[in-house]
Design goal:
The protein is built from three helices and no strands. By secondary structure, it is mainly alpha-helical. The N and C termini lie far apart (41 Å).
Length: 73
């Protein structure tokens, strides 16, 4: 399937960035998201309030990365 995806990307000449995101970083609601993602494979639609906005998650991730960096140095 990955080969098919890469072939399609090459055909449409799109600039796409794949990013690996660790699954368990102590982010509030992470386990809930995992459950929803699993449920999404079995249902056509899922309606669920995940409490935080994307930008809030981004800020939490940035703080986590900065904290890890500061602890290393």
């Amino acid at each position: 399937m990955l080969d098919d995806i890469l072939n399609i990307i090459n055909e449409i000449s799109a600039e796409i960035l794949f990013v690996w995101i660790p699954s368990h970083l102590g982010i509030k609601g992470n386990e809930k998201i995992d459950v929803l993602a699993q449920a999404a494979t079995n249902k056509d639609e899922i309606y669920e309030d995940i409490e935080l906005e994307v930008l809030e998650y981004n800020e939490i991730i940035k703080r986590h990365i900065l904290s890890k960096w500061q602890n290393e140095w």
